[in-house]
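Please, structure for the following, as tokens.
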Amino acid sequence: MNEPGTRMCGLDLLRAIAVVWVMLFHSYLIGGLGEGWEWLSRYGWMGVDLFFVLSGFLIGSQVLQRLTDGRPMSFGDFYLRRAFRILPAFWTMLALYCVFPQIREAPGLEPAWKFLPSSSTWPSTTGPTPRSPTPGRCAWKSISTLCSRCWRWAQAAGSGRGRCCCSSQARWRPASPCAAACGCTTTAWIRTCSCGPWFVEDIYYPTWNRLDGLLAGVVLTSVRVFRPQAWSVLQRRGNGLLLLGLAIVAAAMWLFADRVGLLGNTLGWPVLSLGMALLVLVAAGPGSVIGRVVVPGAGWLAGASYSLYLSHKAVFHLVDTHAGALLEGRGLQAFAVYALATLLAGAALHYAVERPFLHVRVRLQKRAAGRTALPAQTPA
């Protein structure tokens, strides 16, 4: 997430689009958006890939900017910072899933201890069929893995203090994770064809199959920090790059016309990551339309996106259980009820849990900074 005082309206807009797109996609839990509106949700799962690129860019920026300024940063400090950002709301939703089984959008739930460190991505056979998705999907990816990957790649980028972008020794580094990701998805696809229809478990959810988006974000922040002149040139071509990014995302949609097919699951993921990376690039500066225009409500949706993401499936299920029959066939009225309930629940989680812990984090950081500065202020 952007730090206080450094918010970028373009990145807020992309994050808002991503979370709304994902929520529209998950409307299949309640029977979809209705006839004629399926196109709004068909590719909504791509919003998660946009989140991956945004995470690589923003989390990588936290590491690289400190290294560039000559400020040391340990992995423990880095992960503690991310933990205050992610775990409180995550644990709150996990507790609600465990204590109130009626909010679960699907039968079964993996043991809670698997999710406590936010490092589990694999479901047990507790769903209606073996390896079927369970309500623990609010974990989505291994947060520990994502943070450590961002940390390692950002450290690798910063180890040469800018030389890594052009040194012959480091030119292969970005290609290695991309090649590994493509190899993993191809292997998993072949295994899926031979062992059964396990696309979701073998390809879509495993973190190692989705590292290209995260890497794309780290590469972007490396260019921004270590190649400011190149970054400025790219920003001046913002609208052109915006059109190119949209065209590449459209190409990825074409590749994923068959979502479980070989074409999408070999070429589709890196193409999608490239398109999303271009969108993040132009949104991170004033050189494009989306980098300059402030869309009302986008900033709030961006700030509350994590809480909305964690809670929306449970809200969909609760509304469908208690009012689904009354709302069936009511079109826009039903959409408004589901949307309002989702926004209210997300806001409650955001303001009651997320924001207070972020304030605690800020206080702890200020206290730690004061202790660090104290020896320098003491006369020799």
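The radius of gyration is 21 Å. The chain has a mean pLDDT of 78.
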